TrEMBL record:
Highest rank taxon of the organism: Eukaryota
Naturally occurring in which organism (per UniProt): Mycena metata
Entries under InterPro entries matching the protein: F-box-like_dom_sf
Official protein name in the record: F-box domain-containing protein
Length: 242
């Protein structure tokens, strides 16, 4: 347990609290009046709610900047994430289930029977990626495309991808897995990793790599994943070896 006798300045203690989850903040705040004051600071709750948004427990609301909210409003958001909507009473065991927020976006899916499509909603619910040979990023609240990926080679399309938000919530790391069309002389497979600035709506390539080439109409990619600084995907070659 932290103690006021430790030779730590208040700014350092606030920084430590900003890395705590809600249970940790509440536990430390009950230890003394001093830590109650620190645990009640806006910066601590801003960090806690930002982490809840990043993990998808609190939805990002259209036009709402977390830093502009008061400490009381941030605490209320955290409370709603833990206890549910205000319409749920403490003794109400007949509530209909978790709250649901729905959005409808215009579809740009092509009608090719052989071509599948894939969607992924990033944590927080503000941005959605849609793959249908091309790869797009949509703003859910604004209902518009904010970014379209341009393949790293000509006459290629995206047949698999991975995308994850960074800790800052305003950037995403994306790994489009690409393949050239069937009418090319030799179908080639490429993987690119890039960062996307969701606010500025532009991207920067980190790396491009050619991977083993498949054959026919087979999809050589499986289980693309991004985890922090690591990006991985399984690729089958012409002999279906991984």
């Amino acid at each position: 347990m932290l103690s006021t006798s430790l030779p730590l300045v208040e700014d350092v203690l606030l920084l430590i609290l900003s890395f705590c989850d809600i249970a940790g903040i509440l536990t430390i705040s009950r230890s003394s009046k001093y830590f109650y004051r620190l645990g009640s600071s806006k910066g601590v709750w801003l960090a806690a709610v930002t982490e809840l948004v990043r993990k998808g427990f609190v939805p990002q609301e259209e036009g709402v900047v977390l830093g502009d909210l008061t400490k009381e409003q941030l605490v209320e958001k955290a409370k709603r994430a833990m206890l549910g909507p205000q319409t749920w009473g403490r003794d109400d065991h007949n509530h209909p289930g978790p709250p649901i927020v729905s959005r409808t976006l215009p579809s740009s899916v092509r009608n090719d029977d052989w071509l599948d499509f894939e969607v992924k909603l990033l944590l927080g619910g503000e941005y959605l990626f849609h793959r249908n040979w091309r790869l797009e990023c949509w703003s859910v609240s604004q209902r518009e495309v904010v970014w379209t990926y341009k393949c790293c080679v000509e006459d290629a399309g995206v047949i698999a991808f991975a995308a994850e938000l960074t800790d800052t919530l305003d950037q995403a790391v994306i790994m489009p897995c690409q393949r050239t069309r069937e009418n090319t002389v030799e179908r080639r497979n490429y993987v690119e990793v890039l960062t996307l600035d969701l606010k500025a709506r532009n991207s920067q390539s980190v790396m491009v790599a050619r991977v083993p080439d498949g054959h026919g109409g087979d999809d050589p990619y499986s289980h693309p994943q991004i985890c922090g600084d690591v990006a991985a995907v399984a690729v089958a070659d012409r002999r279906n070896r991984i």
